[in-house]
Design brief:
With about 270 residues, the protein is an alpha/beta fold. Helices cover about 30% and strands about 30% of the residues. Bound molecules: S-adenosylmethionine.
């Protein structure tokens, strides 16, 4: 099994929540985040909506439910490798009485999807996983995305650039330990991460432990790996795989990307 499956397999499992109230508070936190970050971007840049969409690595489907609520999609399909996250998304779907979002559990690199889409989203730092999941994984990902898009379909890729983590790791000889505290309504309290940077291969590995708020429980270690490419090399791969670059933003603020941006968002159109 690949690290994406191992890392996320129990995330948002129902057993992390003692009661419905806790789950509701957690859902509010998720929605709060989408309305602050992703939704203003989609409203500003895609006011006419995104049509029939697929989100690859949709997690709990928070973005899809918010887009549905804002009438920015016709239908939304969420593809998620983690069974517990997909289950969380389906329980939420029932409570929201969502009609136009469906959730599928599977690995994008191996699943067979028959439908075609107007827009494909791959957000929150997942697209740099694919090279680490299999050799030339990002190219394979782009080829498959291209086949799943309707003519002139749009692909939106977003990731943080990890510039600060990489700089800190370099400062401390290749590895750095960082921590952060989650918001109060999160069942977990502290996030402890070791970032290791392989400069030659441009590979970043995060080894994470999360400590629970109410229970003496530490979740971890979980491993994530990203192939952090420069803007140019991502653009070249998009072009090689039949896309035209429409815009590169430096984050959801939709300012143009700069060398010191902490995030990048590529908007590309299928032209071949
Ligand atoms: C950082 S989370 C973001 C989730 C969602 N996009 C959001 O913003 O709430 C990345 C998700 O991608 C999923 N994922 C990683 N590799 C995947 C793959 N090969 N196929 C499907 N899902 C994948 C993970 O399980 C995880 O839930």
């Amino acid at each position: 099994m690949n690290f994406a499956y191992e890392t996320y397999k129990n995330v948002e499992s129902s057993k992390n929540f003692s009661n419905k109230k806790e789950m509701q508070e957690y859902r509010s936190l998720l929605m709060d985040r989408v309305y602050k970050k992703e939704i203003p971007f989609f409203k500003k840049k895609f006011p006419k909506g995104l049509g029939e969409i697929l989100e690859i690595g949709s997690g709990n489907s928070r973005i899809l439910y918010a887009l549905e609520k804002e009438n920015l999609i016709t239908t939304g399909t969420g593809l998620e490798i983690s069974p517990s996250r997909s289950e969380f998304a389906n329980i939420w779907k029932k409570d929201l009485k969502s009609k136009n979002v469906k959730n599928i559990c599977g690995d994008f690199l191996s699943i067979n999807i028959k439908e075609k889409f107007d827009t494909i989203l791959c957000l929150t730092s997942i697209f740099p996983f694919f090279d680490m999941l299999q050799k030339n994984g990002f190219n394979t990902f782009l080829k498959k995305v291209n086949q799943l898009l309707n003519p002139n379909g749009i692909l939106i890729l977003e990731s943080v650039t990890f510039k600060q983590e990489i700089t800190s790791a370099i400062t401390f000889g290749g590895k750095v330990n960082l921590w952060a505290e989650f918001k109060k309504s999160d069942p977990f309290q502290f996030n402890l991460v070791e970032y290791a940077w392989d400069k030659k291969k441009r590979e970043l590995t995060a080894t994470t432990y999360n400590t629970m708020r109410q229970k003496l429980y530490i979740d971890g270690p979980t491993i994530k790996k990203w192939h952090m490419e420069e803007r140019k090399s991502i653009e070249q791969k998009l072009i090689k795989n039949g896309f035209k670059i429409e815009a590169v933003y430096g984050g959801y603020s939709s300012n143009p990307y700069k060398d010191n941006s902490l995030e990048y968002i590529f908007v590309a159109k299928k032209i071949k």
